[in-house]
Amino acid sequence: MRAALSAAGAALLQAVLEEQDDGYCGPRTGCGCGGQASYAGSRPKTITTVLGPVTLARAWYHCAACKSGLAPRDRQLGLLPGGALSPGLAEMTALAGAETSFARAAGLLAGLAGITLSPKTIERSAEAAGAAARAATAAGASAIRERRIVPLPPPAPVPDMMYVEVDGTGVPVRPSETAGRTGKGEDGKAGTREVKLGRLFTVSGLDGDGKPVMDQGSSTYCFSFDGKDALAGLVQAEYLRRGGGHHRQVIALGDGAAWIWSMAESLYPHATHIVDIYHAREHLSDLAAHLAFITPDPPAWLAARSEELDAGNVQAIIGAARQYPLAATKAAELDTKLGYFERNAHRMRYADFRKLGMFTGSGAIEGGIKAVIVQRAKQSGMHWTVDGAADIIALRCQQASGRWDELWPARATQTADLRPAV
Ligand SMILES: [Zn+2]
Question: How many Å is the Cα radius of gyration of the chain?
Fold first, then answer.
């Protein structure tokens, strides 16, 4: 029945398309290069739709300046340049390709929709949609940063707190993508490139135990393979887009890397900084191990310091560690290890933070890294190009941010417009 209905639908769609004109718009039309393209006859094209293949009659224009051709009808119907899939099918491939490997996505489309496409076609189409999403995000971000777009304030009631969390992870890439790069600044492992992810979300209230509850659906994401400054630009735009300045309390939560704090200081200087308590505990264990040769009862020493850390009493930890006379390398290493606590003491006032109803762990960004990046981009046997990975991660960010529909403007048009049907 489904196959028969699809075939009937394709025939109906074909008939409707034949009722329309072929996009002819006079002897000349503007080309994307800024030049003028001249009418060069008719060039029909067969595209694959959700219902099956249909053939479009298209007026064809050729531009002498850039030596390329264009069909105004493609744009009218929302077809991507060079694309052979209808907008409806392009969205389906993007949905499936963002979710799982291109080979499995091909299986899903065949199994669920009876549409046969090669994994390569799905890869190309999904990545083209992702590339369009990246371009739109970048354009939107610069428009917001340059104040060409001024976002509306968040709708009332404005949630009490906004969190900004960032973290990074390595994505496995082809050897050509790491050539000429040192492992430094990436994640040390060969064959990966670091992607940084930002997650913004709000908290309106506490649960019965006085613990903060993330507002459902309040998370939005941004990401970059191009380092901390590129990410900072996107975080800034996202913060402004969401009206970060309207929240009573902004919180920057991170693993302790210095760039996170300098980004926070320049973008939202009034924010409270919090070092993820789990990272702080790891540093504490490391400190205890460093002193284990001299402390009388190392496990008890660590337990006592852990209590001090939970209480946010970093001075007590530093005092306890400085009690022992160390020399030479041991002393220098101790200084380094204590430096982390000294620099971040004001970001480790955990008892105060808990009292104020704030998160002290960076579980939200770690969960985001896992859901948005790891589950799709870090499966065994995957070797991405950076662009390919960025395209797919862009789709996943769009989805995780609840902004998927913005990628498909065709859906928003009138029913009289054919694009949604095609
Ligand atoms: Zn041109």
Answer: 27
Q: What is the CA(30)–ligand 1 centre distance, in A?
A: 8
* CA 154 to ligand 1 centroid distance, Å: 42
Mean pLDDT of 374-400: 95
Domain of 346?
278-352
Least confident window among 178-182, 249-253, 258-262, 383-387: 178-182
How does residue 417 score in pLDDT terms, banded at 50, 70 and 90? low
Confidence category of residue 182, pLDDT binned at 50, 70, 90: low
Q: 61 C-alpha to center of ligand 1: Å? A: 10
Judge whether 243 lies within some domain: yes
**How many whole angstroms from 390 Cα to the centroid of ligand 1?**
28
Backbone angles phi, psi at 364, to 5 degrees: -65, -45
Please report whether residue 282 resides in a domain. yes
User: Per-residue pLDDT for 421 more than 80?
Assistant: no
Q: Ligand 1 centre and the CA of 28: distance in Å?
A: 12
What distance in angstroms lies between residue 94's CA and the mean position of ligand 1's atoms?
A: 29
Question: pLDDT (tens digit, 9 = 90+) per residue, 48-84?
Answer: 999 999 999 999 999 999 999 999 999 888 887 778 8
Nearest to 16 by CA among 417, 409, 412: 417
* Burial letters 48-70, b for 16+ CB under 10 A, else e: bbbbbebebbbbbbbbeeeeeeb
How far is ligand 1, taken at its centre, from the CA of residue 330, in Å? Answer: 68
CA of 129 to the centre of ligand 1 (A): 23
298: left (phi over 0), alpha (psi -120 to 50) or beta: alpha
pTM over 0.85: yes
How many angstroms is it from 23 CA to the middle of ligand 1?
18
Q: What's the gap in Å between 60 CA and the centre of ligand 1?
A: 13
CA 39 to centroid of ligand 1, rounded, Å:
13
Please give the tally of structural domains in the chain: 2
Q: CA 160 to CA 246: how far, in whole Å? A: 9
For residues 227 and 259, state if they share a domain.
Answer: yes
